[in-house]
Structure formats: structure tokens, C-alpha cells
Design a protein that fits this description.
57% of the residues lie in helices and 4% in strands. By secondary structure, it is mostly helical. It has one domain: P1 Nuclease, CATH 1.10.575. Helix 1 crosses helix 6 and helix 6 packs antiparallel against helix 7. The longest helix has 29 residues. 41% of the residues are buried.
């Protein structure tokens, strides 16, 4: 790994970790259930080498599923990290553009790139590697939720009121939580079910790309997420078409999180 890139990443993490422990602010991402499912899928697909390294980084009996929810709880006290959970991309854009969409590199795409470099440095302080691992486990999940590549004008659907079967919510929350909650069974059962029938070809196809590519996949899917109709009342047809999108994105996130960590922790 080039020394200059590692040095920049260490500086980035250290600066935020040391000086930006600020007040709690609200934000949104896959809620705990979705993030834990991603972590469980990843945990089951780790290499022996990566598993050993992760066990040394995480405290006690902490799992990747536990790590994946940390940034939405304890991590929210670091207010300056909140923009790292998403990226806003203009309506007619065909893909993520760093100069336009993340000029200060404080979005999920650039954060995941930097954190992936940092976690590979086995000489870095263990507490900082732990902190970075929490965010890697979380941000891979966020990146696969289509509205985390949403529009700035409605904050990725947070400002769009919708309802389903008479229950009011907002569009972002519906994709983060309600669609995941429609899946039956425990988190462990759902995680196993989502990847049970994957072919080796599908696994290999998913184990590729980078944060930019994964974000662009979400950008393409967000057109469906925003297609709610004029009334704001989500139809059963909308939900039945959205559910397989959520299932695939959770499965892809879990497989890719394992692949990223297996690669970084060789």
C-alpha cells in the first residue's frame, strides 16, 4: 500500500476521531435489522484469515453484526460523521461524480474508500482500526440502500411523506425499516435464506467493483423507489416490487462486505 495514501487515511481518521466528538443529531440508514442481516451474511463468508484478524480487532464477543449497527448508535455522537452515511446525486445524473457530489470527500463513497485502506494497515493503532471496522461494516450496508444515493432536495426521501395501508411514514424510513420488517423470521434466519440459493456464478459476479460502482447501482434503483405515485399512498404492487430489490441489496451488501474484508485483511 502506498505510504502517502496510508498517511492521508491515518490523518483523516485521527483528525475526526480526536476532535469531532460533538452532539447527537438524527439521521437515517438501514435500521438495526437490515444492518445486522448484512453483518451476519458477511460473518458467514469471511476467510479464516480475515475472521482471525477481525476477532483481534473487535472487543470481546462482538460480531460483525454488532459492529454494523454501532455507527447508528454510539457513532451518532460524532456529528461530523453523519454525512458519511449517504451521498446526494442530482436528479438527471447518470452516475456518481466525486467533484460534483462529494467535493469535500465527506460522503459514504469516499469514506469507504479511505477506511478500506486504513483497515489493511496492521501497524495502525488497534482502537482506530476498530473504529474504522465499525464504519466499514455499516457503510457497505448503507451503500446498498437505493435512497442513500438520493436527491439532496428531499434528503433521500426523508422529506417525502408516504403511507402504506394507512400507516404514515416517510419514503426513506419505509425503505430503511418497513420493507425489511416485512421479511419473516429472525435476523439469522433471514440472512441464511437470502443467500441460500446463490450460485457460485452470482457470488463471483458480486465480489467485484468498488464503492463508486455499488453506489451507481443504488442510483439506478432509486428511480423505482421514488416512483410512489401522486397520492403518497404506497400500493401493494409497489411494495411487492420493492421487496425483491431489498432482498438482493441486503444479500449483495453482505457478500461484498465479506469480500472487501477478506481482500483487505489478507
Amino acid at each position: 500500500m502506498p505510504t502517502s495514501r496510508v498517511s492521508l487515511t491515518v490523518t483523516f481518521v485521527a483528525t475526526f476521531f480526536a476532535f469531532h466528538l460533538l452532539t447527537l443529531t438524527p439521521s437515517f440508514s438501514w435500521f438495526d435489522k437490515g444492518h445486522r442481516i448484512v453483518g451476519l451474511i458477511a460473518q458467514a463468508n469471511l476467510s479464516a484469515e480475515a475472521r482471525k484478524e477481525i476477532n483481534a480487532i473487535l472487543p470481546g464477543n462482538t460480531t460483525l453484526a454488532d459492529a454494523a449497527v454501532w455507527p447508528d448508535h454510539e457513532g451518532r455522537s460524532i456529528r461530523d460523521f453523519n454525512p458519511l452515511h449517504y451521498v446526494s446525486i442530482p436528479e438527471n445524473a447518470t452516475g456518481y461524480d466525486q467533484g460534483r457530489d462529494c467535493p469535500e470527500r465527506n460522503c459514504m463513497v469516499e469514506a469507504l474508500k479511505s477506511f478500506s485502506l486504513f483497515i489493511a494497515d496492521k501497524n495502525a493503532p488497534i482502537m482506530m482500526r476498530r473504529f474504522v471496522l465499525y464504519y466499514i461494516a455499516h457503510l457497505v450496508g448503507d451503500m446498498h440502500q437505493p435512497l442513500h444515493a438520493g436527491r439532496a432536495g428531499d434528503r433521500g426521501g426523508v422529506d417525502l411523506p408516504v403511507s402504506y395501508r394507512g400507516v404514515p411514514t416517510n419514503l426513506h424510513f419505509f425503505w430503511d425499516k418497513d420493507l425489511v420488517d416485512l421479511e419473516s423470521g429472525t435476523e439469522e434466519e433471514i440472512a441464511m435464506r437470502l443467500v441460500a440459493n446463490l450460485t457460485e456464478e452470482e457470488r463471483l459476479k458480486w465480489q467485484a467493483g468498488d464503492p463508486t460502482q455499488w453506489t451507481n447501482e443504488s442510483l439506478k434503483l432509486r428511480s423505482y423507489a421514488y416512483n410512489t405515485g401522486p397520492s403518497g399512498e404506497l400500493s401493494d404492487d409497489y411494495v411487492e416490487k420493492a421487496r425483491p430489490i431489498v432482498r438482493i441489496r441486503l444479500a449483495q451488501a453482505g457478500i461484498r462486505l465479506a469480500w472487501l474484508l477478506n481482500t483487505a485483511l489478507k
